[in-house]
């Protein structure tokens, strides 16, 4: 804050904004780390003055708050300042330390071990072209590889590189270190091969015969699904670490509708995986009802609730009738609509009265139409009559459902169920 007789005037939104603009100009002109340090010090002073200033409040909701606007501008400048700093030699060292951990913490296949050695040797050659320091790989075991990387780290430390004077050298070192990381990422890990060998031993690939495709795992999965081999898809689901393969297995379980897959998908459903929950509904697995009823109260996740409601409806357990009916009066209209449709799929006649109340009382026509649709799915005379009352409704959606219910009443309808 500069000296003045009227600090309040000096710390006005206009004066603070002007100082921020000057700081931005200084940042754009900065060429060295020292210049950036000066800009950072200026920003620190401005931030202190923003906090100390008695700034006016916004007159209405549509007007920007001066303090918030200035703070946001200050934050953006700090982000720009950090992006202009560096690169630093420590960035390259950090990457190399991570590469060492990858080598020591990963179990490699025989092929992968050779690829790791090649990656470190290539790094050593490239490193010597950047720094005037000799780094060699004296052996192909883990200790020899990590020792070569340690030598490179020591050479970087000894070089005392300056972020301003040696920026190009530092950038080249970071590129070389990143190249080592890429080489290690491409090397074959034992876990990958071990999974395939395990599946091979259990006959997973036998369905392919002499046919080979890439990846063969997907071809085998498709063939097992075609043959109805739920146990083999469950084996693959437990073995693969690939998100893509897991997703395909869940989709296969959903299409096959086989309750035998419940134990395989339950762990994913417990993690609230929507695909797994959908599969449980399609397979009609009653053992999942209790878990899904618990999820029906997840009001903070309407998308999850909609999937859960449909699954409960498809399973058809009357245990779900009351929990679903409770959601007919929840705040979210999409959740209310999904609950109504789930009750229709479930088909319990105890839902007739609450669904009829929704048509009469809900203020959202799409929800009312879902309730009318649900009554048609229940299909008893009482349910159809409750929906048919609204043939002259204000909403075309409700009216159409009522007309369809009236048409069903002209045909033979299911007798009233005994509850």
Automatic annotation (TrEMBL):
Pfam families: HEAT_2
InterPro entries in UniProt: ARM-like, ARM-type_fold, PBS_lyase_HEAT
SMART domains: EZ_HEAT (SM00567)
Domain of life: Archaea
Gene3D superfamilies, per database record: Leucine-rich Repeat Variant
Record region (Disordered): 1-91
Molecular function (Gene Ontology), one example: oxidoreductase activity
Biased composition (Acidic residues): 28-68
PANTHER family: DEOXYHYPUSINE HYDROXYLASE, PBS LYASE HEAT-LIKE PROTEIN
Protein name: HEAT repeat domain-containing protein
Organism: Haloferax marinisediminis
